[in-house]
């Protein structure tokens, strides 16, 4: 009980957030409500997932959300956990968005799980410590608690509390997140995912998402760099550089991932990568993942030397869209090589003539995804509009 | 020849039961089966589990089973391990029987048509109303045409069929038409002309098996299918079929033979075996008749000649011949089942029988074995002595008999042109029968009862069958589902399904005979009856109508009263007990073990014993027939070259699938799903598809001289370039067959309606079709 | 009682039976000779009947795939490969399951406790054989149970019992007197995807 924060300190009206945006995001969220009702009424049949591709766009969107959340938390922890100067200014905004993205992620996965409530019970009374998904779920639960507490302390300007909660959030986030990588990486059945690569890759991409989102939310908060305090501009410039550097690393990772998946045509891995390079996910991969997700932001940052934060915004938006597709491609490509040959009679669901299977998200799934993203934006805009998220 | 020529003699009209059977049933929507039993059906009050012995009725094999019943609901049908004939199996269809009574598409109440024929408007009526309607119409027709034979009776085998045959006798019609002339009549005729019987093959012990025109892996015949699939190590299996069926998967060699030329191969094998002196001389001398004539007859039939006909390499034919002789007596040229193939069929089957005989592979281990049965006491039904009865409409001289022959065989000397030479009195000849009805020659037939048969789909040329139905003034169909024939009927009577009724004991003939029976596994769910009850009820009602008996003797009426009394009061279990009364302990064994048999060992050599006689004229194996020349037929099998496909046309053949019984189980969701598609598809070779500009998945119009159908194309190397095929039983007309109504294509619609005139068998492989992209 | 409640009742009864047999010493397995298979689907239909697996193209515990080799027409060789859950000794589906809904019985049968299944479908992505599916009757993941309900009576699984040529032989792989044991001793055999380390208990005679 150090400082007694007055309500004036917690709430502050930000006039830069127009009601139009609030209404718009809320309206788009209604699409998600439609999806929600459709599932509640008709069950999971309304999803496009199949026996052979049991994890669809809801899982990849969940991953997208939690990657974003973790990224936001990790980047913001540079400030109040690792004490990097100036980074404190991003704290409240990133953490509140980390909370919202995580909650939306949980919401999306709850709709994907057949029995979300059952999960809460049996995760506790019948835990399987060998299961990566158990660890992932549990750690994200803990992580959520930490970041909520962290946000509370930040709002209360309790730096010590924020430090401990931030450290906890950082540790829980990083373990949860590498466990999310492990959820995929531990699957021997799926060579495309299998191996230690994914946990590391997940942390890397989290940092990228986090950086990009921070750039974006500061534009949301201030509309343009001219309104931004000097401190903020400085931080955004640093983040832009980190962001650019990490994308470089990501490109490097991806090149090797592709090379190792093609060289010597390792069975199943090769076919999965082919779906990205020249198959059903080709457009996703080249246009969204490679162009929007990596090359465009990378070159924007290189050419502007990270000094033009307006350009950084473009890079960030491009990257976030790209990253959304990266998650999708990662989750789907890993399942497109069926576990059984789709020989006649085998009833391999979704089998294509080329021996792979296919997945197309259903309208319901897409509406839930759009709804969730819009709702997340709505929540953030509300927070931005009515909470005092500035550090001064 | 006629049954009734000597009107002064009472004739016992014995139900024909030559082991020629086919059957079974059922339907259910994809969605769910829950609704049925609860909504309309009687809820069972039973609780707990029980196991009930019975027998499958979904096809001719009648595999014995034990039903697992839980709380009055059938949970599972399991194979009966005592029933060696099926080698302890139930096939996919047999398994799905558990759902048959609960099918939403089954018949639940008697129905009387209210709209136009085929319009599908029905009213549910009580049994009394249905009976009154039937009695009134039957009497009306008999009076109108002054002829009891103006009412036809069509049926397919089954354990209740004998009661339908009783009904035929009560009404007094000579016009019964049964399934054999759509199925195996020419086979029975061909083999019987040589051996006096249609034998079975001892597949379990045969070392060299040639199967031509029988797809045993998909068309189940127990125990042959199973023994063949077990592939014991010393067996060589050669398979001849224009299609690479699932039997081809079991085969050591598969030859895509040119359709209709099998006989050339058989004759060439006989030629090789005789010319290389590989035949069993001792056997031939002792047991056969006419070897010298045969030797002379096959002189020209060299493998090289046969190669030109059949497209099977001469060397391979020679190899087959030598192997056949080498492995004798454990060699079989497999006697098929369905032989409604091409016009030369009877002679072809004769040739097959002869091939087995000359190597002595008869009634010995691994060869052909004459069927035996377990004779049961039966209730003999006396055919009453009515005045108003005429001879069969397709019997005796029929001056338009030649019309049913395909063009190319019309000049063949060994083909009767003015009658069916060996017409069965009980079975008739379906194709000729229908023509005679349509021509009203020599008299009108205007009423019809149909039992457990669906001629709309099973007789070639569907439009013609519909025309025949249209010409009827009264049609009553007894079925368990709304068959296409039922759809065009006036009264539809729902029989209880095989799992809801008692059926009399029945001896399954075969190399080792065994008796089965049926008892209700559950109580009838709906307002249905067995054929036995229907016949008894109708007879009882006829007895109340004086006008029905004006041409009968008082004695006959008394007999009928007695019949009603006997069958009405007595439970079927007593009848079964009576049937088995010659065998102490048999009834108990049947009830406990689900089947009764004396031995499961094959009694080889009964016909080879000193003094034994075959049922041929000479008592011997007739390589050259003695009776045939008397009837103006060839004594020896003369090869007739089949007609070539006209330019741009393809030969259409039919065949079985393991998920479907004839045109019967296609509506069952579980089976459609196991089959893997929801429709049938045209098999066409890639070369031919290219020629017709068709790709896999396209739709094509398949057109013959009698009809056309639209069907999905399946391009496959599993068929010859000159031969096309699609599955039977799709493209249905009855709307109540919800899953196959107008789904896919009907083969009956495009098959031209030929038959041969020795046995009267229909010919289902004599149709050439044009194929165009739809 | 509806088909659904029957399915649930069966699933429950199997959990109880597994508990009752917690000291069982057998190691159940199936030896298959696929060269006998005629693709008749008796096994697939029998399984549906025995285990209340509802109609639906992709609701199945057991399947028969075709393996055809084309040389020059008419040199075509067809053969069939029936299969089902491999009842892995080292089952990834069990390892990944967060709630222990997927578990292995004492006698080595991998089953799903429908009550605990949260339908995360992790096991589906983990199974290298596509042996699992989402059941609408139990509202849980479903898969082959080796017809566990039949263990008490000592009856063969439905697919084994009904198969016409007896492609499958079921028995205790630990028991030197069992038919499966003898078959494995007398024949060369293989398992599916040996490289995945799952140690399948379905053995295919070569
Ligand atoms: N195009 C073509 N035609 C063919 C054939 C072919 O392959 N293609 N095959 C031929 C052969 S070999 C044969 S054997 C015949 C068979 O031809 P059918 O004897 O007509 O046999 P199914 O088509 O099985 O029809 C049998 C009918 O009996 C009904 N049924 C089943 N069980 C019961 C029961 O317990 N009681 C009653 N009352 N009815 C029941 C069914 O619902 C069905 O309507 O078809 C022949 N015709
Ligand atoms: N699953 C199942 N089993 C059944 C039945 C069923 O409907 N379903 N029905 C039962 C009945 S009633 C019968 S009659 C039997 C029928 O059983 P089968 O007698 O085996 O008859 P089909 O299946 O009609 O097989 C005929 C085969 O001959 C081929 N064929 C066509 N033309 C020629 C030719 O000229 N030469 C040669 N060598 N082959 C040719 C066809 O491609 C087809 O594969 O099956 C019985 N068992
Ligand atoms: S072969 Fe199949 S359908 Fe025919 S009687 Fe046996 S189990 Fe029934
Ligand atoms: S029941 Fe036996 S023969 Fe039939 S498909 Fe199954 S494994 Fe093959
Ligand atoms: S879907 Fe059910 S059985 Fe499978 S891993 Fe998840 S909780 Fe376990
Ligand atoms: S086959 Fe699949 S479902 Fe079966 S035990 Fe192995 S991993 Fe589990
Ligand atoms: S063992 Fe039982 S549950 Fe498993 S596939 Fe066979 S029938 Fe189905
Ligand atoms: Mo038949």
Automatic annotation (TrEMBL), chain A:
Keyword terms, alphabetized:
Cell membrane, Membrane, Transmembrane, Transmembrane helix
InterPro entries from the entry? Electron_transfer_protein, NrfD-like
Q: How does it sit in the membrane?
A: Multi-pass membrane protein
Compartments annotated for it: namely:
Cell membrane
GO CC annotation terms, alphabetical = plasma membrane
Q: Where does it mainly reside?
A: membrane
Pfam families named in the record: NrfD (PF03916)
Origin, by domain of life?
A: Bacteria
Q: Which residues cross the membrane?
A: 20-41, 53-75, 95-113, 133-155, 162-187, 199-222, 242-265, 285-304, 311-328, 366-383
User: Which family is it part of?
Assistant: Belongs to the NrfD family.
Entry protein name: Polysulfide reductase
TrEMBL record, chain B:
InterPro entries, sorted = Asp_de-COase-like_dom_sf, MoPterin_dinucl-bd_dom, Mopterin_OxRdtase, Mopterin_OxRdtase_4Fe-4S_dom, Mopterin_OxRdtase_prok_CS, Prok_Mopterin_Oxidored, TAT_signal
Question: Which top-rank group of organisms is this from?
Answer: Bacteria
On whether Ribonucleoprotein is a keyword of this UniProt record, the answer is no
Fetch the SUPFAM superfamilies from UniProt: ADC-like, Formate dehydrogenase/DMSO reductase, domains 1-3
Q: Name one GO molecular function term.
A: 4 iron, 4 sulfur cluster binding
Return the similarity comment.
Answer: Belongs to the prokaryotic molybdopterin-containing oxidoreductase family.
* Protein name from the UniProt record: Trimethylamine-N-oxide reductase (Cytochrome c)
- Native source species: Flexistipes sinusarabici (strain ATCC 49648 / DSM 4947 / MAS 10)
TrEMBL record, chain C:
Q: Could you tell me which PROSITE patterns the record lists for this protein?
A: 4FE4S_FER_1, 4FE4S_FER_2
Where do the TM regions start and end?
Answer: none
Q: Which UniProt keywords apply?
A: 4Fe-4S, Iron, Iron-sulfur, Metal-binding
Q: Per the database record, which ranges form the 4Fe-4S ferredoxin-type domain?
A: 28-57, 76-107, 108-137
User: What Gene3D superfamilies does this protein map onto?
Assistant: 3.30.70.20
State the superkingdom: Bacteria
Among SUPFAM superfamilies, the record links this protein to: 4Fe-4S ferredoxins
Q: Which GO terms describe its molecular function?
A: 4 iron, 4 sulfur cluster binding; metal ion binding
Q: Which PANTHER family match?
A: PROTEIN NRFC, PROTEIN NRFC HOMOLOG
Query: Under which name does UniProt file this protein?
Result: 4Fe-4S dicluster domain-containing protein
């Amino acid at each position: 009980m150090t400082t007694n924060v007055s309500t004036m300190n917690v709430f502050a009206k930000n006039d830069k957030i127009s009601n139009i945006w609030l209404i718009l995001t809320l309206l788009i969220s209604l699409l998600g409500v439609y999806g929600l009702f459709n599932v509640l009424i008709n069950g999971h049949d309304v999803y496009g997932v199949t026996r052979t591709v049991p994890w669809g766009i809801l899982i990849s969107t969940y991953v997208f959300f939690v990657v974003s959340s973790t990224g936001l938390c990790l980047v913001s922890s540079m400030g109040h956990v690792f004490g990097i100067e100036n980074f404190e200014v991003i704290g409240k905004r990133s953490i509140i968005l980390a909370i919202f993205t995580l909650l939306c992620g949980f919401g999306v996965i709850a709709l994907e799980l057949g029995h979300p409530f059952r999960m809460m019970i049996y995760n506790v009374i019948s835990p399987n410590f060998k299961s990566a998904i158990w660890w992932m779920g549990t750690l994200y639960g803990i992580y959520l608690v930490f970041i909520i507490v962290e946000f509370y302390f930040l709002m209360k300007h309790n730096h010590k509390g924020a430090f401990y909660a931030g450290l906890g959030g950082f540790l829980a986030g990083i373990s949860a997140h590498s466990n999310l990588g492990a959820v995929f990486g531990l699957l021997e059945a799926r060579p495309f995912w299998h191996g230690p690569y994914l946990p590391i890759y997940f942390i890397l991409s989290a940092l990228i998402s986090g950086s990009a989102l921070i750039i974006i939310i500061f534009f949301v908060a201030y509309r343009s760099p001219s309104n931004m305090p000097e401190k903020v501009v400085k931080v955004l410039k640093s983040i832009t550089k980190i962001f650019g550097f990490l994308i470089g690393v990501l490109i490097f990772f991806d090149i090797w991932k592709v090379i190792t998946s093609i060289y010597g045509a390792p069975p199943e891995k090769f076919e999965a990568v082919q779906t990205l390079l020249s198959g059903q996910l080709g457009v996703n991969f080249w246009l969204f993942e490679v162009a929007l997700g990596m090359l465009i932001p990378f070159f924007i940052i290189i050419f502007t030397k990270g000094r033009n934060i307006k350009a950084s915004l473009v890079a960030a938006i491009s990257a976030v869209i790209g990253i959304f597709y990266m998650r999708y491609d990662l989750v789907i490509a890993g399942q497109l090589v069926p576990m059984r040959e789709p020989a006649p009679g085998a009833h391999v669901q979704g089998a294509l003539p080329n021996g792979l299977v296919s997945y197309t998200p259903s309208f319901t799934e897409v509406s839930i995804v759009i709804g969730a993203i819009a709702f997340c934006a709505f929540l953030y805009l509300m927070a931005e509009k009515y909470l005092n998220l500035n550090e001064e | 020849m006629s049954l009734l020529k000597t009107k002064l003699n009472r004739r016992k009209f014995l139900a024909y039961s030559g082991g020629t059977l086919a059957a079974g049933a059922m339907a259910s929507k994809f969605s769910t089966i829950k609704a049925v039993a609860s909504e309309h059906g009687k809820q069972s009050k039973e609780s707990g589990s029980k196991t009930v012995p019975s027998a499958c009725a979904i096809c001719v094999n009648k595999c014995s089973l034990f039903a697992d019943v839980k709380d009055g609901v059938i949970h599972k049908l399991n194979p009966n391990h005592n029933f060696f004939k099926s080698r302890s199996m139930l096939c996919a269809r047999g398994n799905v029987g558990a759902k048959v009574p609960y099918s939403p598409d089954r018949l639940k109440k008697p129905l009387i048509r209210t709209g136009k024929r085929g319009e599908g408007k029905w009213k549910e009526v009580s049994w009394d109303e249905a009976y009154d309607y039937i009695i009134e119409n039957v009497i009306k027709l008999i009076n109108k045409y002054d002829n009891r034979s103006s009412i036809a009776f069509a049926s397919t085998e089954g354990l209740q069929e004998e009661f339908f045959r009783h009904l035929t006798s009560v009404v007094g019609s000579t016009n019964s038409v049964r399934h054999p002339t759509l199925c195996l009549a020419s086979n029975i005729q061909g083999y019987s002309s040589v051996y006096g019987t249609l034998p079975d093959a001892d597949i379990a012990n045969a070392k060299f098996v040639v199967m031509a025109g029988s797809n045993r892996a998909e068309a189940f015949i127990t125990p042959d299918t199973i023994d063949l699939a077990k592939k014991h190590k010393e067996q060589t299996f050669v398979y001849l079929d224009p299609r690479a069926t699932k039997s081809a998967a079991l085969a050591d060699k598969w030859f895509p033979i040119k359709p209709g030329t099998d006989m050339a191969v058989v004759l060439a094998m006989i030629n090789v075996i005789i010319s290389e002196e590989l035949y069993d001389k001792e056997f031939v001398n002792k047991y056969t008749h006419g070897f010298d004539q045969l030797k002379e007859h096959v002189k020209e039939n060299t493998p090289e000649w046969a190669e030109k006909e059949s497209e099977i390499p001469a060397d391979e034919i020679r190899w087959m011949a030598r192997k056949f002789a080498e492995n004798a007596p454990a060699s079989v040229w497999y006697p098929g089942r369905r032989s409604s193939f091409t016009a030369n069929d009877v002679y072809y089957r004769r040739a097959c029988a002869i091939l087995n005989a000359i190597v002595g592979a008869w009634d010995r281990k691994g060869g052909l074995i004459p069927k035996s049965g377990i004779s049961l006491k039966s209730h003999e039904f006396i055919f009453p002595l009515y005045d108003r009865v005429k001879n069969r409409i397709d019997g005796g001289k029929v001056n338009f008999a030649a019309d049913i022959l395909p063009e190319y065989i019309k000049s063949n000397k060994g083909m009767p042109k003015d009658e069916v030479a060996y017409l069965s009195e009980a079975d008739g000849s379906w194709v000729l029968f229908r023509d005679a009805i349509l021509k009203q020659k020599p008299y009108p037939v205007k009423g019809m009862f149909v039992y457990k048969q669906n001629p709309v789909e099973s007789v070639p040329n569907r439009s013609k069958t519909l025309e025949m139905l249209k010409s009827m003034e009264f049609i009553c169909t007894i079925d368990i589902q709304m068959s296409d024939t039922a759809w065009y009927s006036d009264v539809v009577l729902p029989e209880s399904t095989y799992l809801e009724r008692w059926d009399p004991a029945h001896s399954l003939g075969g190399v080792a005979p065994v008796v089965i029976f049926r008892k209700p596994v559950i109580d009838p769910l709906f307002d249905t009856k067995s054929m036995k009850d229907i016949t008894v009820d109708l007879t009882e009602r006829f007895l109340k109508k004086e006008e029905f008996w004006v041409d009968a003797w008082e004695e006959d009426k008394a007999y009928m009263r007695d019949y009603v009394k006997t069958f009405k009061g007595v439970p079927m279990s007593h009848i079964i007990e009576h049937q088995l009364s010659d065998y102490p302990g048999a009834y108990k064994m049947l009830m406990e073990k689900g089947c009764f048999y004396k031995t499961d060992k094959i009694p080889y050599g009964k016909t080879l014993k000193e003094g034994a006689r075959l049922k041929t004229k000479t008592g011997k194996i007739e390589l050259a027939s003695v009776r045939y020349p008397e009837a103006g037929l060839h004594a020896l099998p003369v090869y007739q070259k089949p007609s070539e496909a006209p330019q741009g046309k393809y030969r259409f053949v039919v065949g079985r699938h393991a998920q479907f019984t004839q045109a019967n189980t296609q509506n069952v969701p579980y089976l459609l799903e196991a089959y893997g598609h929801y429709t049938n598809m045209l098999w066409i070779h890639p070369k031919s598809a290219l020629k017709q500009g068709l790709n896999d998945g396209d739709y094509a119009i398949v057109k013959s001289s009698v009809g056309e159908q639209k069907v999905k194309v399946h391009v496959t190397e599993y068929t010859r370039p000159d031969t096309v095929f699609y599955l039977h039983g799709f493209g249905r007309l009855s709307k109540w067959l919800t899953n196959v109504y107008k789904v896919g294509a009907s083969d009956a619609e495009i098959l031209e309606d030929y038959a041969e005139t020795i046995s009267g068998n229909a010919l289902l492989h004599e149709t050439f079709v044009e194929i165009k992209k739809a | 009682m509806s088909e659904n409640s029957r399915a649930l009742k069966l699933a429950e009864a199997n959990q109880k039976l597994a508990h009752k047999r917690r000291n069982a010493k057998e190691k159940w397995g199936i030896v298959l000779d696929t060269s006998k298979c005629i693709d008749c689907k008796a096994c697939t239909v029998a399984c549906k009947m025995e285990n209340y697996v509802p109609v639906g193209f992709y609701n199945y515990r057991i399947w028969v795939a075709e393996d055809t080799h084309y040389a020059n027409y008419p040199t075509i060789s067809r053969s069939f490969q029936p299969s089902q859950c491999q009842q892995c000794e080292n089952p990834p589906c069990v390892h990944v399951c967060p709630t222990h809904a997927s578990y292995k019985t004492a006698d080595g049968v991998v089953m799903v406790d429908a009550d605990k299944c949260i339908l995360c479908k992790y096991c589906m992505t983990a199974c290298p054989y596509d042996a699992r599916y989402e059941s609408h009757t139990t509202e849980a993941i479903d898969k082959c149970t080796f017809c566990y309900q039949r263990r008490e009576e000592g009856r063969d699984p439905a697919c084994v019992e009904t198969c016409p040529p007896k492609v499958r032989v079921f028995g205790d792989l630990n028991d030197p007197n069992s038919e499966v044991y003898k078959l494995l001793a007398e024949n060369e055999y293989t398992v599916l995807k040996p490289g995945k380390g799952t140690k399948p208990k379905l053995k295919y005679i070569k």
